[in-house]
Fold this sequence. Notes:
The chain has one helix at about 230; strands at about 10-15, 30-40, 45, 55-65, 70-75, 95-100, 110-115, 130-135, 145-150, 155-165, 170-180, 185-190, 200-205, 220-225, 235. It is built from one helix and 15 strands. Strand 8 and strand 9 (about 145-150) form a beta hairpin.
Amino acid sequence: xGEKKGRLIVSSTFRPNAPxxxxxxxxxxxxxxxxxxxxxxxxxxQISDLFPEGYTEEAALAELSDGRIYYNSRSCSGYYDESxxxxxxxxxxxxxxxxxxxxxxxxxxxxxxxxxxxxGGADRGYGLKGGLVRLPIKNHDILIFSNTDAGLGPRxxxxxxxxxDGGETWPIKRLxxxxxxxxxxxxxxxxxxxxxxxxxxxxxxxFADMRSKTxxxxxxxxxxxxxxxxxxxGELTGxxxxxxxxx
Length: 247
């Protein structure tokens, strides 16, 4: 977009050397989300500034119609080691959001979402990798986000949320798969192809007890396919409004 048209950009994580799980690191060794980008077709890569909050990783990003970039990150501010168990604050189980106004070099306007859960972590609140995609509809910033609708609980009830204003609000959600679910990724069909209008979600279909060392024999990767009309038949979240033109 604009002067950086053709830039390649992908989310990444800055991880100082430390043996601890990401959630259990000391503040000086906290991990940070960031991005890497290339302006020469992938020959060389530059590192963005760090995300405005630590204990963040496994993020997703999307370019908006005005050139801004929306960044949505997992938070690892809970705990992994059960010997470090403590009461978690409500914000420790919610997603982190930020926006870039310089094509992905810096991240501003940090927000702790009040509507997007961070996917659970065996009751320990160390987050989950979610999916994100912007639908290819000209001049509209319709984002779809996927994660387990679990809060502090086990990883289950895989759900999608829709935003119609570039991630400012998320007024509607719909359950995709229950009760199993974990990591997910999203993609959108391309205009002018048989996939136009479709959203594709690749996700882990497994039992969600992360204390287990083995997966059940029927654990598989699954693909779900749906469109925006299907999502609009879901549940209102109370966070913003679905635009009238979609009805």
